[in-house]
Amino acid sequence: MTRLTVEASGALTLVEDLGRPGLAHLGVAGSGALDRAALALANRLVGNPDGAAGLEILMGGFRARFDEGAWIAVTGAWGRVTLDGRRIAPYTAARALAGAVLELGPAERGARYVLAVRGGIDEPATLGSRSRDTLSAIGPAPVAEGRVLEIGGAPAASVPLLDREAAFPPPAGGVTVALLPGPRADWFTDAARATLFDAAWRLSGQADRVGARLDGPRLERRVPGELASEATVPGSMQVAGDGRPTILLADRPVTGGYPVVAILSPASLDAVAQLRPGQEVRFRHA
């Protein structure tokens, strides 16, 4: 069995697949890769099923050695990726020979690299998924230096000669993402709902896999008082008492007590996963 020995793990490296949906009634979030499209693409490039487990690597600084030959693909964030010191093209399949060292430099565009290895990362599954939930600490522990990761057996599909979709790096400037009305949109003033779409927001430094807080104008509520906790979904935009919105992400609590003014579309969530602190984000009607 092929093994991958991690020599440097960077700021945060996690094993992630497409998560464990359908367990919210047990208090378990879906979790899974924040940039789901990037994981599906990386897996497709090496012939894996879309949901095979890969590595989500925050901002780079990752280095690992293969004990046997393996096909790999790196998607998501864009930066210098090398095999034995030679740069490899982003968003393409590459062959790592036995003993090869893969290194992911600091991300130049985007925030999260996704690494897929043909066969998938073969960590034990918890509740049907190999994903790490950082809020509840379910799933494989964060990948640390010295960790040896086993790779599963080769899938039936071959490595494709050419992917069917063009791939582009995450934007370095502002992004625009789609919003649907939230279940508590009527708790906010007309001016607040207009501001949500008219203002330029920025990702704050308070952003992780649980939620991404935004800096910008205050959203004024029409309805005062407390809200009984109710279910949340990925992309729920909660607004705290200070009027600042937070986009709930994969590792969110499954219930929340702040009113949800809007909900991001799934494709928009992939874009938010690649935002860097200070990067501008605007919203449009879905």
List how many beta strands DSSP finds.
Answer: 18
Helix content: under 10%
Overall geometry comes to elongated
| Biggest sheet details | 9 strands, antiparallel
Mean pLDDT: 95
Output the number of helix runs. 3
Number of domains: 2
Structure classification: mainly beta
**Gyration radius, to the nearest Å?**
20 Å
Strand content: 35-45%
The residue ranges in which pLDDT falls below 50 over 5 or more consecutive positions are: none
Terminal CA distance: 46 Å
What series of H and E elements makes up the topology? EEHEEEEEEEEHEEEEEEEHE
Protein name: Biotin-dependent carboxyltransferase family protein
Organism: Agromyces fucosus
InterPro entries: CT_A_B, Cyclophilin-like_dom_sf, PxpC
Domain Carboxyltransferase: 25-286
Write the layout of secondary structure elements.
Elements: E1 3-9, E2 13-16, H1 36-45, E3 54-58, E4 62-66, E5 70-83, E6 86-87, E7 93-96, E8 101-117, E9 148-150, E10 175-181, H2 190-198, E11 201-207, E12 211-215, E13 230-231, E14 236-239, E15 245-248, E16 255-256, E17 260-264, H3 266-273, E18 280-285
Parallel strand pairs: 10-18
Antiparallel strand pairs: 1-4, 1-9, 2-3, 3-8, 4-8, 5-6, 5-7, 5-8, 10-17, 11-12, 11-18, 12-15, 13-16, 14-15, 14-17
Descriptors for this entry?
286 residues, mainly beta, Cyclophilin, 2 domains, nine-stranded antiparallel beta sheet, seven-stranded mixed β-barrel, 18 strands, hydrolase, Biotin-dependent carboxyltransferase family protein
